[in-house]
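Q: Convert this sequence to structure tokens.
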Amino acid sequence: MKTMIRLAILFTFILLPFFIGNNINVTHNRQNLILETRYNHAIDTATQDAAKALITNASQSSEAQYESLKKLRINQVEAVQTFLNSMYLNFRVFDHKIGQGVIQSYVPLILIVAYDGYYVYYMDEYTNSKGEMELTHVWSPKKPYAHADQYGNTFGFTLDDFVTVNRNSDQKWFEGFRGEISVTAGVPLLRDAKTFDQVRRGSIVNAIQQDLEFYINKYNNFAKKYGVAYTFTLPLISQEEWNNTVNDVGVLSFVQGIPMGTKYYNNYALGGSRVVKKPVYNGIIANGRKYYYSQNACTSSFTTIEVFTTEKDAAASGYIPLDCTVGNRK
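A:
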């Protein structure tokens, strides 16, 4: 009996540290989950606020009369400041300069997706008034959605099918919606709407991905010099998220390095401005009759005479719907 008691006590002493350690791990994991949920909410809210500020504060006179993404003027500076202010409020440092500096250090970069290019808000070194090197956020110039095909033709893409083309054979420039200039430009990429859209999206996503990696690596090099132990990395972003990124103007933000026990927080958020893109209707003349068609429904080899934003406007100008089930289709 005494032997059994001794063995029980011995096993208790052996297993007790494991039970205690497991209980501590469960507690830490629960706390980390709560923290991660809180941080996710903070970055999602800040990014959505920034996306709204991107357009609502840019040009109040044009907000109610917005017709086209081409005419949209964004305010990337106001968007980023709104993002930071929202983060300050969520982390309760709105009136605390040092705390704000800490929050900014957890934001390696913010990317603003505009209609015909993008901006990067990233960390870089500068010399302060004392002659000392410091890290601060700066803006990149607008980076166009550029592409060059195998024939040397260059393209300036946008978030829809409006495109600027430089034809390599004679260095002539063409600008307009793909369906409008496909015949006159005579460039292979413009002939098929599906192929054009795939190349356009791929070019935009690849350019953004490469720049994100470049600027995060740049920040890591600076961070090591300033004694930051955490290594910033580009989070895994799904293909669906990338598709959403190039669907509309918006904000892509990254928050990394916030301590969570033995781990670090590393996440991103995408905020779209949710601008409703009005359809474009092309007016053409075929066999002596005036027709109109939606660029989202079909294509035509006929030269576009007029462009409308509603079917009502097209009909008022004497155009009738083109049957996209016959003739040239997408």
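The first helix runs from residue 2 to 56.
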